[in-house]
Amino acid sequence: MKQTPDIKSLFSSSLFWDTDLNDLDMQKHKSFIIGRVLNYGTWNDWKLIRNYYSEEVIKETVISLRDLFPQSLSFISAATHTPIEEFRCYKQKQSTPQHWNF
Q1: 22-61, pLDDT tens digit by residue?
Q2: What whole-number distance in Å separates Cα of residue 89 and Cα of residue 10?
Q3: How far is CA 67 from CA 1, 51, 56, 64, in A?
Q4: How far apart are the first and last CA of the chain?
Q5: What are phi and psi of 72, to 5 degrees?
Q6: Which residue range forms the structural domain that includes residue 90?
Q7: Cut 0.85: pTM above it
């Protein structure tokens, strides 16, 4: 019987530098994993989560995230064909007043 490698061991080594991979559960911590891959992951990391989670699960998870880099937000908006205004992190950033920039 052929054993499949644990998906967590296939992620980039720098992606979860502050987390013990043995304690990371792919279902329980999916918002943490997806957010980390979108903000700091490589293209291979993206392909791993895309193959593991469905596009609908990724979309629902990311819509509720509080914080994403602007580039990550634009990417996931285009990848899931979802208007950027539907994402919580976009709404939250728009409602937070910025300091004056002199």
Answers
A1: 888 889 999 999 999 999 999 999 999 999 999 999 999 9
A2: 28
A3: 42, 23, 19, 9
A4: 65
A5: -65, -40
A6: 30-94
A7: no
DSSP state at residue 70? H
Average pLDDT, the chain: 85
Structure tokens at 8: 């967590």
Structure tokens, 89: 């992190």
Rounded CA separation 55/65 (Å): 16
What is the count of structural domains for the chain?
Answer: 1
Provide the sign of the torsion angle of the four alpha carbons 37, 64, 5, 25, taken in this order. Answer: positive
Is 42 part of any domain? yes
Residue among 56, 65, 101, 69 nearest 86 (CA) = 65
Q: Other C-beta atoms within 10 Å of 66: how many?
A: 11
